[in-house]
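Researcher: Next entry in the queue.
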Amino acid sequence: CRTTDPCIVICNNGRVCSIPVSALPSGRGDGAPLATFIELAPGAKITHVLSGKAETPVLISTSAGYGFPCFIGDMVGRNKAGKQFISVKEETILPPILLAPTKTSLVVVLSKHARLLTFMLSELKLLQGGGKGMMLIDLKAGDELTACTVVNQPAVTLSGTAGSKVQQVKIGGKELQMYFGARARAGKVVETRLKGLKFE
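Model: Structure for this entry, 200 residues:
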């Protein structure tokens, strides 16, 4: 990032705070605790930090299966306490994804029960004011969204465990088309013996 960029701090309660990168310690050293630059609400914890140009698009998603695109600049605020931006209750906020979108960009989502769904990024509505977002995948009872990514080519690599070993499986081309559908569909279970699947 550059010193002219904002540093965005996302908390587990859905509040976002912004810090000018120029205000952060520079050079080598231990730095300074991020919590000293912002005002955390009682019981709140920092979950994610990102930085980039204000016009950089970002995809926000939660374990409840909802998400929305916005810009880094939309999360910039004037108060040290930040502002409420992501609507959450008990769900967790997944790592935000910095986007370099194209007309063929695909959103790929993966649930705890290994259900995979891919759909066009263009199906998602830009929410510059934040909120709950749109349903990404239709989750069944007891399931939750565990991973979300965006790809600009029809291929994705998953990793998981088989016993004590970590293995990878690549899904692309016609095979990935099997999981392609409209946003908010249930997706299909990935046929693999690997457990604890996640995106590489």
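Model: The radius of gyration is 18 Å.
Researcher: Noted, moving on.
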